[in-house]
Amino acid sequence: METRGRTVLFLVLGLLVFSATFQDCSAAFNPFNWRKQTRSDAASSSTKHGTQNRLSSVVFPVRGNVYPDGLYYVTLFIGQPPKPYFLDIDTGSDLTWLQCDAPCVRCSKVPHPLYRPKNNLVFCQDPICASLHHPGNYRCDRPTDQCDYDIEYADSGSSLGVLLKDEFPLRLTNGSLIKPHLVFGCGYDQEFSSESVSPTDGVLGLGTGKSSFISQFQDQGLSRNVFGHCFSGRGGGFLFFGDDLVPSSGVVWTPMSKDYSSKHYSPGPAELLLGGHSTGVEGLKTVFDSGSSYTYLNNRAYHALISSMKGDLARKPLKEVPDETLPVCWKGPKPFKSISDIKKYFKPLVLRFSNGKNALMEIQPESYLIISPYGNACLGILNGAEVGLRDSNLIGDTFLRDKMLIYDNEKQQLGWMPTDCNRIPKSGTDLF
């Protein structure tokens, strides 16, 4: 999203949609009806694949980085003729949306011309519309009423818009070209927590809900409800829909936990280790959130980690220094020029998830640290209490880099393994 990753303590925080609200369906859309929006009929002109052996996958090259860009994003082509749009990859929210000229009330400057609707509204009778509303707040007085959305994010940013349906041409790994019609949001009124210039045109929502693109792919018989991403620490990587690229071995799997959140991808409670030793932090309620540039720990866990790290670094030639880049930074004997320069000073972190028979996720220093413009080593882990996350712990991009993360909604499990994310595969056999 347009405000993410550009400030230290007020990131978009993975678009968790803790306070997401969706407005009632209402009258037909017109340029002067700012608070009214709709959804098109659920019927899609895209071809449905009815047999399992026709299911395939699609691979998207990824751009961006944790620092200085503050996000990872893909290019999707939309409409006829197809036009490119940059979308921020967000596993912490469901709805895909882009800034839209409907006309626009408040929009930031974006990389491409604003999307313009072409009488492609989604009606409120569409099941996806109902899925975006709390049952007590959902109204659809007439089947042809439009469906509004109003999302508020954890950083106080928001998007208000109308739901549309349009064509998304895609090349599958089996070589075929498909043109599914997918539901997305046309955001014509945004509030931004920081900058008014956006590196992307909108958000690619990959959460667990029915409006998520991966759910729509499954509903149209295009792929299984499985997706994954691989973000390179050097920038870039790839995203895939479908299970063709899921390795048959070497993946650490853990069940998705529903105890904490049924709307987000949670691997369940975790223990935090530093260099193989406990930090005293156990039972962390965690959520995987690719929309968060950094990882956020609750107040107790954050301070316990900082204390453990300071103790471990006490006899090393590093000095904690103020740096506007991030809250905690260390200066070395001479300015650091690359991540490889700092590996010898810092130890790996490990998250041990009890749900997956003590499944371990190892995070190397080159993932959780960044080099600031001043040559300091800065910690890409922040205190979630300072941005209103309370007891929540977001596993953001600083922990997810240089791994393939797999979200298997069909088997209700999450998986990961170290991977060279700079190699963009054409099929599963191209990975290894």
From TrEMBL:
Residues 72-417 form the Peptidase A1 domain. It comes from the Eukaryota. Keywords: Aspartyl protease, Hydrolase, Protease, Repeat, Signal. Pfam families: TAXi_C (PF14541), TAXi_N (PF14543). The active site is at residues 90, 289. GO terms for biological process: proteolysis. Residues 1-27 form the signal peptide. SUPFAM superfamilies: Acid proteases (SSF50630). GO terms for molecular function: aspartic-type endopeptidase activity. Belongs to the peptidase A1 family. This is Aspartic proteinase Asp1. It comes from Nelumbo nucifera (Sacred lotus).
